[in-house]
Design brief:
It contains 2 helices and 4 strands. With about 140 residues, the chain is an alpha+beta fold. It has one domain. It is elongated, with a radius of gyration of 22 Å.
């Protein structure tokens, strides 16, 4: 295995930080999907508000640039409304506020996060294979 100061170890650390960031992104997307139909418990109140991951570049221990989830922000897009005058969450005009979560957007975002996670996993697996092959050649 490469020591922690080698370029290869740095590359693996970058890929690992990206995998952690995508894993956090997938958790947030799952929460959004789980609450896509949630409404307020009080009449006229606000429902669940979509969450958005905010990533920032970070300098890893060996000086490489990785990525990290800095915070989770609330999407300020307007809530959808639906006319349901008999609903317990309806306002005085009979409208119920619905979350600003679009399941199609979340599904596409989830797929993108999965692909990014898989790409970084492939980087790590490829490095491990190359490292093993190199050691095998050197031992001959």
């Amino acid at each position: 295995m490469a020591d922690s100061s080698s370029p290869a170890a740095g590359m693996m650390a970058v890929a690992a930080s990206a995998m952690q960031a995508q894993q956090a992104r997938m958790r947030i997307i799952a929460e959004n999907l789980a609450n896509a139909d949630s409404v307020s418990k009080s009449a006229g109140g606000d429902p669940y508000r979509r969450q958005v991951p905010v990533f920032t570049p970070v300098t890893l221990p060996d000086g490489e640039q990785g990525v990290s989830l800095t915070r989770v922000a609330q999407d300020q897009t307007a809530f959808r409304t639906q006319y349901q005058p008999g609903h317990p969450s309806a306002d005085a005009k009979g409208y119920v506020k619905l979350p600003n979560v679009d399941p199609m957007v979340e599904a596409l975002d989830m797929r993108e996060a999965q692909r990014a996670y898989q790409a970084n996993l492939t980087v790590i697996e490829t490095f491990k294979t190359m490292e093993s092959d190199t050691i095998a050649v050197l031992n001959k």
